[in-house]
Amino acid sequence: MSSHDIAADLRAEAADLDAADPLRSLRDRYLTPEGTDLVAYFDGNSLGRPVAAAAEQLQSFVAGPWGDRLIRSWDEQWLDWPTRIGDRIGELVLGAGPGQTFVGDSTTVLLYKLSRAAVDAQVARGRDEIVLDTDNFPTDRYVLEGIAAERGLTLRWIEADERAGVTLEQVRAVVGPKTALAVFSHVAYRSGFIADGAGITAAVREAGGLVLWDLSHTGGSVPVQFDEWGVDLAVGCTYKYLNGGPGAPAWAYVAQRHHGTLRQPIWGWIGRRDAFQMGPGYDPADGLRSFISGTPPILAMVPLQASLDVIAEAGIEAIRAKSVALTEFVIRLADDLLAPLGVEIASPRDSSIRGGHVTLRRNGFREITATLWTQGVIPDYRDPDGIRIGVAPLSTSFDEVVVGMLALRDTIVEFDAADGPRS
């Protein structure tokens, strides 16, 4: 069968899959400007496409609560946005009851605030070890290294498999009476491996430690049940599968049982019991508000709300089903089209432990990624030799997957013809 025939058959199969997709109508809610050079977008796990309604809602925001009501909007609505939108994220994607999730700051800042609050409370109990893994996202590792240096704590490293991730058995072997805090990513940023959230949380808590999960590659793609699992703390960004936009504010979860006992280290005026008293000394507010520091990024929350409307309409279980179908399709095409060219699957093949992206490995992928970008095919590259195919369930079509994977195949062939076959 010719290359043309293979492409035609795959496009026809993709058309059938798109027609049968129960979420197909929601793809039109995402902006793809006329005249764009975009052919296939495989980076929704780094930056989600904008919801089309976000532009209209931003215009309405400027003309309405900002332009018309001006500073009165703080009293009328804005001061409640961090917790109100946080509650919605908790309900839609985290399995978390109200009053435990808020929006504000970056993921890095929230990770620092929650981690530092946790270890400060635990050091008083004679616990001075932080458990983390070698393959966690760099920011997570750097923040924890900084906290350990600040507080004179010991880091207990778990050697994680770059093609998989941290396992329950590894965690059980490390946690103990000295464990203050354990921090892991629920979905590994490199491989897409889904950690055992319930089991690892239980293991850390049974050892007397607190656990903090980073859900940056989970939220809006893989369902979780924070309250049911007994999670202590969590953070996550909103610009990936939550489509909040570049630099959109992150969210943080603090279980109800820790309110009033954990004290975060950045004492700002919004987190004070009576913020507008402007009085001397810091007296933390009750509940979740004590974890908020400075003025909330209100304008940046507008696109996030537009995205949450679409997620609410779809439902997280349906989103997950579409994600699994897309990644299964990516793996099948990789096996058929790319394996003969030396490409390996570097993500779990079992969908029950695979998140929303598939990582492929081969030498030359750094250069090949750069070439694909010039063609309007947009994956991302991660060392060592990895291309991540990030398919966003609400905005990616099966046809887009076929077009992008065929382009990847052709680019590899051209690369090998120019530079010699893969050794």
TrEMBL record:
Pathway: Amino-acid degradation; L-kynurenine degradation; L-alanine and anthranilate from L-kynurenine: step 1/1; Cofactor biosynthesis; NAD(+) biosynthesis; quinolinate from L-kynurenine: step 2/3. It catalyses: L-kynurenine + H2O = anthranilate + L-alanine + H(+); 3-hydroxy-L-kynurenine + H2O = 3-hydroxyanthranilate + L-alanine + H(+). Keywords: Aminotransferase, Hydrolase, Pyridine nucleotide biosynthesis, Pyridoxal phosphate, Transferase. It holds the Pfam family KYNU_C. SUPFAM superfamilies: PLP-dependent transferases. Its cofactor is pyridoxal 5'-phosphate. The keyword Transferase applies. The keyword Hydrolase applies. Its EC number is 3.7.1.3. GO terms for molecular function: transaminase activity. Homodimer. Belongs to the kynureninase family. Catalyzes the cleavage of L-kynurenine (L-Kyn) and L-3-hydroxykynurenine (L-3OHKyn) into anthranilic acid (AA) and 3-hydroxyanthranilic acid (3-OHAA), respectively. This is Kynureninase.
